[in-house]
Specification:
The chain is an alpha+beta fold. The protein contains three helices and five strands; from the N terminus they run αβαββαββ. Strand 4 and strand 5 form a beta hairpin. Helix 1 crosses helix 3. It is globular, with a radius of gyration of 17 Å.
């Protein structure tokens, strides 16, 4: 668990996006889908983005066989990158607002209102005392 917390904190620190200039790096989530499902996937994403459920209206499509330092899109697949909520933590931190990530989860919405979490991950740090 300590590794995950350290990785999240590094991602927060690595975010350089500046709200005033609109430039800098953001943290992304990458989904890899079958190439044949791209039209249906884009239709669903359009509904999510235009419904106001997304942190950012921007997505990046990565063609098959795209390879970067940490992303590999296999043949027959397409990668779709969306902005991760960790980016928001990074923006807050860069503007002097300390953040301490504690939870991640899947929020259930009914009629555009949150009703509760379907799943939640608690990022816990336990201090051991002698």
């Amino acid at each position: 668990m300590g590794f995950i917390i350290t990785r999240i904190e590094k991602l927060i620190y690595d975010t350089t996006f500046d709200l005033k200039t609109g430039k800098g790096s953001v943290i992304i989530n990458t989904s890899i889908i079958d190439k044949k499902d791209i039209d249906e996937t884009i239709e669903i994403m359009d509904h999510v983005i235009n419904g106001g459920y997304s942190f950012s209206p921007y997505i990046k499509i990565m063609e098959e066989e795209t390879v970067t330092s940490d992303i590999n899109i296999p043949e027959g697949k397409i990668g779709i990158a969306t902005m991760c909520s960790i980016t928001i933590d990074g923006i807050l931190l860069k503007n002097g607002i300390p953040v301490t990530p504690k939870y991640g989860g899947l929020l259930d919405l009914r009629n555009r209102k949150p009703t509760g979490f379907e799943d939640i991950i608690v990022i816990a740090v336990h201090l051991l005392t002698p």
